[in-house]
Amino acid sequence: MIGRLNHVAIAVADLQGSMAMYRDVLGAQVDAPQHLPEFGVTVVFVRLPNTNVELLYPLGENSPIEKFLQRNPSGGMHHVCYEVADIQAALQTLQEQGIRVLDPTPKIGAHGKPVVFLHPKEMGGVLVELEQA
Ligand code: CO
């Protein structure tokens, strides 16, 4: 079921500063910010040879990232994203195994592909995003 590690997402308190750090200090390719109002986030992809880093910054009212930053003022790792070949088949298998899905209706994520999030409780304490490959 599980495929490539698509990205590791990091919530940041200073988006411009984090972009500059990855671009100017670490020498990575850093994409332009994308605003995703239905997730309450602005995302920036940092392109690495074998995966990506997704910088997350609050957007709008009641952003889940704002709440995360209140608990973690310096920022921190927010989730990992694995690719799956067939997200509906993956959801069915996971639900049959008792893995909780936060919202079982896939939403269109930052890459224009369906995504769902799995509850951290069953996933080793880590929020997991699945993305249709
Ligand atoms: Co993500």
Structure description:
The protein is α+β, with helices and mostly antiparallel strands and 133 residues long. It has one domain: Roll (2,3-Dihydroxybiphenyl 1,2-Dioxygenase, domain 1). Helix content is 22%, strand content 38%. It has three helices and nine strands; from the N terminus they run βαββββαβαβββ. The chain has helices spanning 15-25, 64-71, 87-96, and strands spanning 2-11, 29-30, 34-36, 41-47, 52-58, 76-84, 107-108, 114-118, 128-132. Strands 1, 2, 3, 4, 5, 6, 7, 8 and 9 form a nine-stranded mixed beta sheet that branches. A hairpin with a 4-residue loop joins strand 3 (34-36) and strand 4. The N and C termini lie close together (11 Å). Bound molecules: cobalt (II) ion. Cobalt (II) ion is lined by residues 7, 9, 54, 79, 81, 129.
- As a percent range, the share of helical residues equals 10-25%
Q: What is the mean pLDDT?
A: 95
Poorly predicted runs of 5 or more residues: none
Which cofactors or ions or other ligands sit in this model?
Answer: cobalt (II) ion
Give the domain tally. Answer: 1
**What is the terminal-to-terminal distance?**
11 Å
CATH class: Alpha Beta
**Main beta sheet strand tally, sense and closure:** 9 strands, mixed
CATH architecture call: Roll
* H-E string: EHEEEEHEHEEE
CATH fourth-tier homologous superfamily: 2,3-Dihydroxybiphenyl 1,2-Dioxygenase, domain 1
Assign the structural class, choosing from mainly alpha, mainly beta, alpha/beta, alpha+beta, or little secondary structure. alpha+beta
Shape verdict: globular
Number of helical stretches of at least 4 residues? 3
Radius of gyration: 15 Å
CATH names the topology as: 2,3-Dihydroxybiphenyl 1,2-Dioxygenase, domain 1
Number of strands: 9
Percent range for β-strand residues: 35-45%
